Amino acid sequence: MADIHATARPRSNAARICTIIAFVFAALAIFLSPLVFGLLGVILGVVGAVLGDKPLGWYAAAASVVGAVIGIAINAALLS
User: Fold this and answer.
1) Residue 32 exposure: Cα atoms within 13 Å on the Cβ side
2) Domain annotation covers residue 3
3) How far apart are CA 2 and CA 21, in angstroms?
4) pLDDT, mean of residues 7-21
5) CB-based contacts of 28-33 (< 8 A; 24+ apart in sequence)
6) Is the pLDDT of residue 1 over 60?
7) 5 partner at 20 to 30 Å CA-CA among 30, 35, 59, 80?
8) SS3 of 54, please?
9) What's the rounded Cα separation, in Å, for the pair 50 and 61?
10) Is residue 64 in a domain?
């Protein structure tokens, strides 16, 4: 039987760094610029996941989307 984990990419330091920065951008998306930091967080989260930091990279991408949505809602509430 073939080992299914033999083809999986090992997690690299670059993957972990991208994932951590994506979580930071998710938080910044709430308070500063939701579209910019949300988009950058999604991109870095996906890059982190592809480089081997699964599932944390996907969680970071999802957190960035949620952070951007919350940030947009807060901005809309403050401007209305």
Assistant:
1) 12
2) no
3) 35
4) 82
5) 28/67, 29/64, 29/67, 29/68, 29/70, 29/71, 30/67, 30/70, 30/71, 30/74, 31/71, 32/71, 33/71
6) no
7) 59
8) coil
9) 12
10) yes
